[in-house]
Amino acid sequence: MEKFEYKGKRYIKIKQDWYSEIGEKQPLKLAVELDSEFSKSLLEKEESIKNLLDQSAYFINTGIMQKAFDFAQEALRMAILQKDINALPNVIVRNVDIFRELKRYQEGVNLILEMRSKYTELLINPYVETALAALYCDLKQGESALESAELATEYFKNAKKKLSDECLIVWNRIKSDYAPLYQQYRLSKTKSASE
């Protein structure tokens, strides 16, 4: 069920049909018009989140982290208000990037865990999992980083996508910063593959 205001009146969309506030089914001509305007409004909202993320990227590139943070937080707020599950992974990753720049790693972890508890679709998102693995590397939590990197890799494979550059960077960090842990992991993988 979606609610939409058009020309000063409120309408409710249930499946394919439009109804007035008091439950009267709207005629086809008006329903077509409402569908068109409703779609336009959704595109504008999506564009707004994209614009906020673009502004955030601009400020990251110019080194004005507080402004970048403000725009990323606004994009997050908007995505949550609109329950925009498609935009949330990008918005979360951008916020995490800024938390990492500001060395506020635990806040980034908390954001991911909080968003996952509200939106279960994020539990298997490879980009969000990669961001979590990077945060664990920053926090010097090798085992958690390895676990998240492995999950991210699995999620990329399940989605039939190649590993992102960020995921490869995380694997390289684990390999260099936690060499014994990584060797043990590789050894366990080799054993399980040969059994």
Describe it.
The chain is mainly alpha-helical. The protein has a single domain, classed as Tetratricopeptide repeat domain (Serine Threonine Protein Phosphatase 5, Tetratricopeptide repeat). 71% of the residues lie in helices and 8% in strands. A 3-stranded antiparallel β-sheet has the order 1-2-3, with helices on one face. Helix 5 runs parallel beside helix 7. The chain is elongated, with a radius of gyration of 22 Å. 26% of the residues are buried.
Instruction: Write the H/E string, N to C.
Output: EEEHHHHHHHH
Mean pLDDT: 91
What is the fourth-level CATH superfamily?
Answer: Tetratricopeptide repeat domain
CATH architecture: Alpha Horseshoe
Number of DSSP E strands: 3
What amount of the residues lies in strands?
Answer: 5-15%
The protein's oligomeric status is single chain
List keywords for this structure.
8 helices; Serine Threonine Protein Phosphatase 5, Tetratricopeptide repeat; 3 strands; single chain; 71% helix
Write the layout of secondary structure elements.
Blueprint (H helix, E strand, L loop, with lengths): L1 E5 L2 E6 L2 E4 L7 H34 L3 H17 L6 H14 L3 H14 L7 H13 L3 H17 L6 H13 L1 H16 L1
Antiparallel strand pairs: 1-2, 2-3
What does this entry show, briefly?
71% of the residues lie in helices and 8% in strands. The chain is mainly alpha-helical. It has a single domain (45-194), classed as Alpha Horseshoe (Serine Threonine Protein Phosphatase 5, Tetratricopeptide repeat).
